[in-house]
Design a protein that fits this description.
This protein is mostly helical. It contains 6 helices and no strands. The two termini are about 20 Å apart.
């Protein structure tokens, strides 16, 4: 039950961009040996996604375009495109569809 509450709190922190709160939740879970599931893409030595990239990835999974992502996160279209490019590179994907598939395979989203 505690792990589930922390998972929900962590999801909310990540969704709203509270990286410090996310870090505190992870530390609390570790201190009590609770598994929250994968939060980063460090499977098989891959480069980790940032908290913001995870937010962007969730929006990509939901079918949002770069302009939609920019509007949702109050960032420029260029910044949204840069985040998507970083996600594709870090997930070793050549398209948004492939990135979504890889995110599901790794249980990131």
């Amino acid at each position: 039950m505690a792990a589930e509450l922390l998972k929900r709190a962590r999801a909310a922190a990540t969704t709203h961009g509270f990286a410090g709160l996310d870090t505190a939740i992870v530390a609390l879970a570790r201190a009590h040996q609770l598994r929250l599931g994968p939060a980063r893409t460090t499977i098989d030595g891959d480069e980790a996604l940032s908290v913001r990239e995870l937010e962007v990835l969730r929006l990509v999974v939901s079918g949002k375009s770069n302009p939609d992502i920019a509007e949702t996160l109050f960032i420029s279209r260029r910044t949204a495109a840069a985040h998507v490019s970083n996600i594709l590179r870090k997930l070793d994907a050549t398209s948004r569809v492939e990135a979504v598939s890889e995110a599901h395979r790794r249980a990131i989203v």
